Amino acid sequence: MNTKNIDLDITKAESSRLPEVDFDNLTFGKHCSDHMFLCDYKDGAWQTPKIMPYGPMQMEPSAKVFHYGQAVFEGMKAFKDDNEKVWLFRPEENFKRINISSKRMGIPEFPENYFFEGLETLLKLDSKWVKNGDGNSLYIRPFVIATENGVSASPSDAYRFMIICCPAKAYYSKPVKVLIAQEYSRSADGGVGFAKAAGNYGAQFYPTNLAKEKGYQQVIWTDANTHEYLEEAGTMNVFFRIGDKLITAPTSDRILDGVTRKSLIEIAKREEIEVEVRRIKVNEITEAHKQGELKEIFGSGTAATIAYISGFEYDGTYYDLPNLEKPYSTHLKKSLQDIQYNRAKDTFGWTREVKTT
Ligand SMILES: *Cc1c(COP(=O)(O)O)cnc(C)c1O
């Protein structure tokens, strides 16, 4: 890890907005912490990064991000343990991934030392925004946008890398019902599905709205060619439990390489739960359902950690999932959160303390 000190211009907020935030009634992503990190790319180089008070910024209407969607993002979390220490979970994975996404979108890669110095300084300034207690966290949103002015359809020669942070609360996540996609697709071979490219998410809203009208909160995406293979659930990776075995699709250029997914695979292996990483067909789960062998389906991602799925519709038929007494998902979620909140020994070396003093 490159931790060489860098120049960082810091302008502190005059006062904190923290007292204005009602932590008992938080809407995810609505409030941002006092400061933000930003770094501009121009003349072929990333300029001196800055931390400044969170607030609006001026851009020209012709800025390329508004026209061609040249934008990528990340999602990660900071956790506070019972001794007021702040922890990041596998942040180097998010750093690597934003550059993978950037590369695919023709955006220059961001330097590692800028990322970590910026992130850790930001968290130090806004450490009071990280609340302890199970499920509480500070959601961290790094992103990059194309800022060159001019509406010609060509890659931008100017970019802005930013990090903003939003407090997130423990929420009781109700099990969701999902619709298995048979018409729309999230991503295609050779496309950008593996990247956290902004347009991937905008493109999901319409088919997800249609699913909502039918009473489903999310769509399980299938492969664009045949709609036979199960790929992702909304903006999460997805696991299926058949009998005592967990199955999840291998990552590819259509499937995002989720940090939660790969962490759960390792935790499951440690706990001697059998995991198969392989392609899985819709008719395998409908068959397993008929045999009474389909026990659980859950999504995995940083925002929700694990989202339990209570049932799904496919081809006009609704399939209800059993209400297990000891689902793998509950157990795995607890094991993962114990590591994230520094309640259990992190034998994997995943957590990274942020010095806040
Ligand atoms: C972000 C994301 C995930 C989950 O990734 P994590 O690193 O676990 O948060 C899964 N699928 C898609 C499409 C995503 O955008």
Number of domains: 2
SS content category:
alpha+beta
At CATH level 3, the topology of the largest domain is D-amino Acid Aminotransferase, Chain A, domain 2
The CATH architecture of the largest domain would be: Alpha-Beta Barrel
State the main characteristics:
357 residues; alpha+beta; D-amino Acid Aminotransferase, Chain A, domain 1; D-amino Acid Aminotransferase, Chain A, domain 2; ten-stranded mixed β-sheet; six-stranded mixed beta barrel; 7 helices; binds pyridoxal-5'-phosphate
Question: Could you walk me through the main structural features you see in this protein, from its secondary elements to its overall organization?
Answer:
This protein is an alpha+beta fold. The protein has two domains: 9-169, Aminotransferase class 4, branched-chain amino acid transferase, N-terminal domain (D-amino Acid Aminotransferase, Chain A, domain 1, 2-Layer Sandwich); 176-341, D-amino Acid Aminotransferase, Chain A, domain 2 (Alpha-Beta Barrel). 23% of the residues lie in helices and 29% in strands. The protein contains seven helices and 19 strands. The protein has helices spanning 65-68, 91-104, 112-125, 198-213, 259-270, 282-290, 328-340; strands at 9-10, 35-42, 45-46, 50-53, 71-73, 76-80, 86-89, 137-146, 159-168, 176-180, 218-222, 230-233, 236-242, 245-248, 274-277, 294-301, 305-314, 317-320, 351-354. The strands form two sheets. Strands 1, 2, 3, 4, 5, 6, 7, 8, 9 and 19 form a ten-stranded mixed beta sheet that branches. A hairpin with a 2-residue loop joins strand 17 and strand 18 (317-320). Helix 5 crosses helix 7. The chain is globular. The chain starts with 8 loop residues before the first strand and ends with a strand. The model has no long low-confidence stretch (mean pLDDT 96). Pyridoxal-5'-phosphate (PLP) is lined by residues 75, 196, 232, 235-237, 256, 258-261, 300-302. Keywords: Amino-acid biosynthesis, Aminotransferase, Branched-chain amino acid biosynthesis, Pyridoxal phosphate, Transferase. Its cofactor is pyridoxal 5'-phosphate. It catalyses: L-leucine + 2-oxoglutarate = 4-methyl-2-oxopentanoate + L-glutamate; L-valine + 2-oxoglutarate = 3-methyl-2-oxobutanoate + L-glutamate; L-isoleucine + 2-oxoglutarate = (S)-3-methyl-2-oxopentanoate + L-glutamate. It is an enzyme of class 2 (transferase). This is Branched-chain-amino-acid aminotransferase.
